[in-house]
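Practice problem 4.
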């Protein structure tokens, strides 16, 4: 059995050894995702993350040549409750990888913004900004609750965080005064970036990655961003991306799309290709808007975005890995599920920036004030019935509180998985061919 990708090493420490049962009949595991590529059969186990070159039989007995597939959890006893098995393994992995303190924090210095994006989920929110007292208490809260064995992760969000560089300055200064190492990331529209801001990013703020949204060519960009005072930001943002990437920061360009702006994407890619010279630090990805993802026509647009990845590479940029397919066991589902709290401008603590009303669990002055709300939001034993038998459950957000609802989530995961796994098989084949060519002939 040719192994294309090894099983997750941490998970392997917890999985029980499979005892072969001569009396049992084995069936394909729900987590065994089979596919064909270049005429060969492969299987990827979405639970263990092992990928092998093999054809999974509809049923098998011990000694029929499939014992390795049984031991690798590709074949399981007919009566195995795999939903319960997954839940137990997931709970064990959470205990095994339990964090002592938060690894990072998403900080919203302000809810104000110089744009009024048509898709903004914060529309109507009061544009509050952190007071100096809240800033100081935020520093104390981070220092008291963060993990002591790792750099503190600070993720700047908003609103538009670059409206408040002084707040970012002060919180980063507070980390340095306490002798704590930290790193930053940022989500921004990029319009307020100047050479001075770039200098702060790579200096005091220690920004290693930034996400900047651009939603089509200039005409669509202007119509969708709806800046309060548009000042040629489309070209300015492209120039800023070039500066930021040139300073060594990883840039992700997010294109929020629907059918209305999809046709302008080729012009956007052309403008980005011409305007950005430091392409090796720049990745591009397309993200259908929530209302599209919830509609019956979601797969058509998703198929276009997957196919367009080739155009991104042809333009000289990196493509972002598929979010839906992980090559390591996913212990935590998302930022809300153990990634660290969202700190809002008023000092409130939330689990998810998309669910500020449902996921509030405390504030920076009192810490956790509603432990039940925190636990309830991410309970892993509330998996919806339709998800319990899905092969992609280990790669999905399995708790029902998640606001992201894809209409055809299983089909979407399959599309992404096929694209990613076939590419992985091709890379492995190319590597093996290269090794054969380098092997000296005696």
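Answer key:
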């Amino acid at each position: 059995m040719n192994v294309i990708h090894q099983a997750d090493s941490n998970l392997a420490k917890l999985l029980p050894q499979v005892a072969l049962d001569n009396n049992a009949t084995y069936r394909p595991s729900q987590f065994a995702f089979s596919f064909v590529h270049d005429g060969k059969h492969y299987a990827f186990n979405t639970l263990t993350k092992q990928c092998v070159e093999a054809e999974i039989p509809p049923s098998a007995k011990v000694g029929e040549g499939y014992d390795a597939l049984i031991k690798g959890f590709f074949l399981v006893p007919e009566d195995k409750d795999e939903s319960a098995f997954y839940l137990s393994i997931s709970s064990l992995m959470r205990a095994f990888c339990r964090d002592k303190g938060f690894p990072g924090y998403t900080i919203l210095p302000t809810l104000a913004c110089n744009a009024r994006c048509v898709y903004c989920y914060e529309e109507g929110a009061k544009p509050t900004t952190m007071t100096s007292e809240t800033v100081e208490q935020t520093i104390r809260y981070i220092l008291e609750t963060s993990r002591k064995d790792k750099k503190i992760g600070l993720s700047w969000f908003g609103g538009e965080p670059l409206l408040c560089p002084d707040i970012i300055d002060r919180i980063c200064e507070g980390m340095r005064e306490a002798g704590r190492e930290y790193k930053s990331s940022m989500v921004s529209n990029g319009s307020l970036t100047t050479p001075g801001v770039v200098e702060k990013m790579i200096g005091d703020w220690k920004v290693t990655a930034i996400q900047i949204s651009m939603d089509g060519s200039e005409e669509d960009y202007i119509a969708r961003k709806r800046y309060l005072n548009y000042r040629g930001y489309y070209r300015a943002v492209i120039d800023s991306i070039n500066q930021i990437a040139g300073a060594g920061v990883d840039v992700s360009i997010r294109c929020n799309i629907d059918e209305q702006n999809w046709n302008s994407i080729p012009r956007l890619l052309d403008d980005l290709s011409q305007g950005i010279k430091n392409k090796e630090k720049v990745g591009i990805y397309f993200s259908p808007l929530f209302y599209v993802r919830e509609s019956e026509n979601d797969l058509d647009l998703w198929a276009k975005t997957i196919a367009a990845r080739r155009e991104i590479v042809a333009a000289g940029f990196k493509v972002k890995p598929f979010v839906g397919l992980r090559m390591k066991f996913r212990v935590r589902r998302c930022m809300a599920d153990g990634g660290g709290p969202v700190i809002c401008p008023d000092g409130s603590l939330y689990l998810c920036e998309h669910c500020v009303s449902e996921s509030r669990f405390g504030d920076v002055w009192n810490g956790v004030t509603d432990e039940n709300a925190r636990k309830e939001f991410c309970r892993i034993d509330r998996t919806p019935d339709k998800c319990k038998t899905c092969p992609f459950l280990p790669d999905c957000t399995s708790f029902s509180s998640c606001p992201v609802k894809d209409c055809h989530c299983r089909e979407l995961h399959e599309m992404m998985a096929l694209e990613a796994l076939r590419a992985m098989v091709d890379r492995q084949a190319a590597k093996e061919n290269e090794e054969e060519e380098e092997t000296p002939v005696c």
